[in-house]
Amino acid sequence: MALLLKNAHVVDPSVELDGRVDVLVEDDKIAAVGENLSAEGAEVVDLSGKYLVPGLVDMHVHLREPGFEAKGDIESETAAAAKGGFTGVCSMPNTNPVTDNGVVVEYIKSVAAAKGHCRVYPSGAMTRGLKGEIISEMGNMVEHGCVAFTDDGHGIQGAGMLRRAMDYGQMFGKVFMSHCQDNDLVGDGQINEGAVSTRLGLLGWPAEGEELQIMRDIMIAELTGAKLHIQHISTAKGLEMVRAAKAKGLPVTCEATPHHLFLTEDAIDGTYNTCFKVNPPLRTAADAEALIAGVIDGTVDTIATDHAPHSDWEKSREFELAPFGMTGLETALGLVITNLVKTGKITFGRMVELMAIEPRKILGLDQVTIAEGSVADLTVFDADAVWTVSEDDFASHAKNSGFKGVELTGRATDVFVGGKRTLANGVVC
Catalytic residues (predicted)? Predict the structure, then answer.
């Protein structure tokens, strides 16, 4: 059945569109875009007062399935994605079994097709079992639909191992996404090394433990010619390295998370709230300011959540024993609108670049545009909706958000994936 989406403010910088138009959807494609459209027999959806943009994609998400369904699963976490306004997510490979072969890739795709509320683009491990010792079955994974390679959660410690993976894997044309962590330097670090770690008596996780591997990985990418994407960048100095690599014309991109943009180490206090325990850790206010400047000037290519659901009992343990990570799919859009768009730091057009256009470009996915013939993956949001983050409202199986109790402005209301509604008036379909 055709859908006629009326009166939305459509923003898509890729086709220089920023104004009120109607969008006609037939089957899974956009059939027409223009003013005062009509279509006999179409279901009319009035989107007055709302924005319509190309469907958002989060290129760094932990779905936990297979193997860790107590934390979350493909059904629950894609429901969280839909509620947050996302039409697609790139899943990380630290599952059990590890996503390091085509069989696991096919499993993820099949479950997502049967139970998912958004598209799932699986990434595959660079090394078998994420152990950093033997190259994974890269070609086999690509054949079955893997979109990128990463040992996320386990920075590859051996420079030679990373070179071999890049030398071999670049023939498949996929991006290498790097979790930058020098384990020998980081050790058992819990939070950013500095005044807060000293005051709270927690082991420090120095910025250099991230920056050394950013520098190394950029140099190896230059050596091999591989496409490199720095995951969850968190320090000003690390961002400068990416900026310098871009200036040299190297195929290097990076992402920043909402929690590294809008939270700092100062959020961690004597309550030892484990929702603020993330990897890499929350850094200084100066680091967060530098990342926001990078978002504005284009050094940061995309905003990705590193959505990391954990069960309540895990996050209820002592700070040193609790796992790293927080959820982010359901709060990302509101956080970006509240802190970046409403403050005038970026436009809605730049937001679309960060959260829809660039993720697809980096992952090698087909672009979605608000134009005739494009697949109808669409995100609709109310930019003025005021709401308070509450775990009682989460679609995610997990509740470990660092933004609980925060008032935000802007929220997704409707999501269409291939023309099919997966979020209707704020309710997951």
Answer: 306
